[in-house]
Amino acid sequence: MQKITLFDTTLRDGSQMASVAFSVKDKVRIARHLDDLGVDYLEGGWPSPTNTRDIAFFEELRATPLHHARLSAFGSTCRSGVPACEDKQLRHLLATGAPVVTIFGKSWDLHVTDALRISLEENLRMIEDSVAFLLSQGVEVIYDAEHFFDGWRDNPAYALDTLRAAARGGAAWLALCDTNGGSLAWQIEAGLRAAQGVADTPLGIHTHNDSELAVANTLAAVAVGARMVQGTINGYGERCGNANLCAVIPTLELKMGYQALPAGKLAQLTPTAHFVAEVANMAPPEFQAYVGNAAFAHKGGVHIDSVMKVKRSYEHVPPEAVGNVTRLLVSDQSGGSTVVERAARMGIPLDKKSPATAEILTKLKEYEHEGYEFEAAEASFELLIRRCLNDFTPEFDVRDFRVIVGGHVMGGTPLSEAIVRVRIGELEAHTVADGDGPVHALDGALRKALEPHFPPLANFRLTDYKVRVVNVRAGTAARVRVLVETTDTDGRNWSTVGVHENIIVASLEALCDALSYGLRLAHTRQPA
């Protein structure tokens, strides 16, 4: 089975989507998840003195490298009139310590003469010199031929010359980019075939979705010889997005006979798509092919009757192959194997046909109906399972709370104060704390009540907090979903979720789960 190399640019191109804003912590979490999924290359961002977030991201991964994926820094060729060895931007790319550097150069003569306003010859020099210099510094170099297909249609000889320049410099891959997303499949095929005669360097494909053809164009390129696929999880990206790897990968593996991910990893695709959406604070995929909640959902009576008898009668691939499930919306039957698999990853053995699993499924459906999503809240999901198995009893119970937000007499920062009454066994603690905001104050009051009884809580730190409206149409009465990430001094991270019409109540639920889960970790930790 022939291998297709996967180049994920969710953290770079995907972060340029209008509604996406990753923090450093977000990027690290996603990077670890994609590394576990098995992508071959992971593009981390464009580091520069003005982009401290990406610099911090590369510093974190330099301290704790990825296990499988090769990390790539992204940037442009050197500037006009500047030797590559003296170009500051190229030096910034090397300073990341990433083993791979991906640079883009101009393939369309329009951009060279009208945007950069330099000669065609100088552009070729910049491409070759940049690739050769980076290669001399011991990194693998991937060359992105920006606007290649537009350039090839306008001036095919020059577009191919730019590829020759990158090949002479020693690029490991030449990725042909449909940067404007306006090409059709047969144009992609023709451009790729023309590029195949230029050099022995293997070719990749990078498409955008401005014509709703990014996935189709990517697959067309693979069909005629591209061996690297660039794209993003959920198709995130500038303007209309990039090629959606969540559609590209299963199509390559299940329909075209290629290997894209390591064996057994394809079933992680749906959880990965939902995880990335949650971390990006975006709505989880609903109508996406393969990974959407509705991808294998059946509502019509005839459909349901047929699927119950022969699943492939209305399902083009087995949903389990991509980590999804059949959803029968009338009878609401689905999810057993998924729950069993996720529980197994947490060290909890379940039998798909046991009453306990049926109870967990019932509870899960109830929670999902209320607006909960557990893909990026694995700690809350584990606690839900353990509650159903009578394997978890909270060590504390919040009996009452109050949060006050007001203003100082002299103006300035509003005051946030939280009061909590917490039951701990036979004892009751009543504490007050202030904070930068209501959730910070609530977290402080909880800790003040609990830390004297549970010293490990001093090692926990809230590191991320996200809010999403669940039912937007309800306006100010809408339910909100709060996602909290917590880290301990050993570097372990866990995420919890809360849902309620009141954002403070939802936050309190997520905080209580976070502290309860952390205490469980502390109690079960094996001595070194």
Offer a quick outline of the entry.
The chain is built from 17 helices and 16 strands. The chain has helices at residues 24-37, 52-63, 88-95, 109-116, 120-136, 148-154, 156-169, 185-196, 214-223, 245-255, 269-279, 301-309, 336-345, 355-370, 378-388, 438-450, 503-524; strands at residues 5-8, 41-45, 70-76, 100-106, 140-146, 173-178, 203-207, 228-231, 297-298, 327-328, 397-406, 415-424, 427-435, 460-469, 480-488, 493-500.
Structure commentary:
This protein has 17 helices and 16 strands. The protein has 528 residues and is an alpha/beta fold. It folds into three domains: 5-265, Aldolase class I (TIM Barrel, Alpha-Beta Barrel), CATH 3.20.20; 297-388, no CATH class; 397-524, Alpha-isopropylmalate synthase LeuA, regulatory domain (Double Stranded RNA Binding Domain, 2-Layer Sandwich). An eight-stranded parallel β-barrel has the order 1-2-3-4-5-6-7-8, surrounded by nine helices. β15 and β16 form a beta hairpin. The longest helix has 22 residues, at 503-524. It is globular. The model is unreliable at 330-334 (pLDDT under 50).
Mean pLDDT: 91
Strand order of the largest sheet: 1-2-3-4-5-6-7-8
Structural class: alpha/beta
Quick one: overall form?
A: globular
SS summary, helix count: 17
What's the story with the biggest beta sheet? 8 strands, parallel, barrel
Classified by CATH, the class of the largest domain is: Alpha Beta
Distance between the termini: 43 Å
The percent of residues in helical segments reads 25-40%
Number of individual domains: 3
Q: Gyration radius, to the nearest Å?
A: 26 Å
